[in-house]
Design brief:
Distance between the termini: 81 Å
Mean pLDDT: 87
Number of helices: 6
Strand order of the largest sheet: 1-3-2
Number of strands: 5
Helix content: 40-55%
Largest sheet: 3 strands, antiparallel
Strand content: 5-15%
């Protein structure tokens, strides 16, 4: 086997060679190749065998039960909250929201908004729209907290609380 010049770091490119697959999956060479073949991640380029990282990631997402693995691309393919609770086998909407928050915290871009449900963005515009919606929501929450904090600054008994 010839020496090849590495371009970038392991894990950045979509395709990886067998040694990178072995490291990426923490498996031995034979088990890594067997897994790659079983999930359809093998890509033959001439005599060279490469492995599709997206297919490998999708396989492990399904194995670990991630929310991302259940979602479809594009707002038009959004899954309702009720349906996603069922699909993800969550007991409550709050449990689903906690799992989504955790995946978002780990870098997943899971879009939602305006009662449309949840989806994976299909393009940059959907990400921008999602960011705009979330920023407006955050601003409204901040304004509500600011108003409440101002009320707390008044001496007790001087707040005008409606009963």
């Amino acid at each position: 086997m010839r020496n090849r010049t590495a371009i970038g770091k392991v894990g950045e490119a979509r395709l990886m060679d067998t040694e990178e697959l072995r490291k990426y999956t923490s498996l031995g060479r034979n088990n890594a190749m067997k897994l790659g073949d079983e999930i359809g991640a093998r890509v033959q380029v001439g005599k060279r065998v490469l492995w599709d990282k997206r297919k490998i990631d999708a396989h492990f997402d399904m194995q670990t039960g991630s929310i991302v693995s259940l979602l479809r691309r594009g707002k038009e393919n959004a899954i309702s909250t009720k349906e996603l609770v069922r699909m993800a086998e969550c007991g409550t909407v709050r449990e689903l929201q906690a799992r989504i928050a955790k995946e978002r915290g780990n870098g997943a871009v899971i879009c939602s908004g305006s009662g449309a449900g949840y989806w994976l963005p299909k393009n940059r515009k959907e990400i921008e729209d999602f960011c705009t919606t979330m920023e407006k929501r955050a601003k409204n929450i901040f304004n509500a907290v600011r108003s409440a904090r101002k009320a707390l600054e008044l001496p007790e008994g001087q707040q005008q609380l409606e009963e």
